[in-house]
Write a structure and sequence with these properties.
heterodimer, B: mainly alpha, 5 helices, 0% strand
Chain lengths: 88, 132
């Protein structure tokens, strides 16, 4: 059996790390869905506040996406522009 | 005009201003700035496009039944997430675009929202630093 090289180990661990980083993308999706559901409930209960509800929801959802983007950036950099390979 | 038109125009305006300031800094402080500027422009354009998509999604979801709105908002989020993924992949693979510029461009709109709408209340800071 061939021994595991340092490069292969780094690539394997990077792939696992990328997969773990992508978990961060699920959270904002669930959160935005939950917020949209509650926003729709709020609009149904108080239709005159629709504008305020939509604006607040829009700003909150835009900021909530940020953590998902961070996870995506980490995953893509680990997969396609891995800086750790150059350290060998 | 929809409920979010004023908000969108305001956010776009400040994002473009901040992008110009960031581009100025890059030109002054980075030697090979052209790929960074391309990345910044690319990232800012995609971020504004995704913000428009988000606004359309939220406006439609607010008029739906709560359960339907939940599924609709979540599915649309994953479409936008895929767009972000494709944009970042292209910037990593293309030599003429710097991925750091794209990341800065993608996150500028969030910075604008945080500065303009979340951390703009001075009384909040006064309450934090007030002595009891």
């Amino acid at each position: 059996m061939e021994p595991i090289t340092g490069r292969a180990l780094i690539l394997a661990c990077s792939a696992i790390g990328a997969g773990l980083a992508m978990i961060a993308g699920i959270g904002p999706g669930i959160g935005q869905g939950f917020a949209a559901g509650k926003g729709a409930e709020g609009v149904g209960r108080q239709p005159e506040a629709q504008g305020d509800i939509i604006r607040t929801m829009l700003l909150g959802a835009a900021v909530a996406e940020t953590t998902g983007i961070y996870g995506l950036i980490v995953a893509l950099i680990l997969l396609f522009a891995n800086p750790l390979i150059n350290l060998l | 005009m929809s409920e979010t038109t004023d908000l969108k125009i305001n956010v776009y305006k400040y994002t473009i201003i901040l992008a110009c300031v960031a581009a100025g800094f890059l030109v002054f402080f980075i030697e090979d700035y052209v790929p960074l500027i391309y990345g910044l422009i690319f990232g800012t354009l995609i971020a504004t496009l995704n913000f428009t998509l988000l606004a359309n999604t939220i406006e439609r979801a607010a008029r739906m039944a709560p359960e339907k709105a939940k599924a609709y908002a979540t599915s649309r989020y994953f479409i936008r997430y895929t767009i972000y993924g494709v944009v970042l992949y292209i910037s990593i693979k293309a030599d003429y675009i710097n991925v750091i510029g794209t990341i800065i461009g993608l996150l500028l709109i969030k910075v604008v929202i945080l500065i303009r709408y979340a951390f703009n209340d001075k009384t909040y800071y006064k309450k934090i630093f007030r002595k009891k």
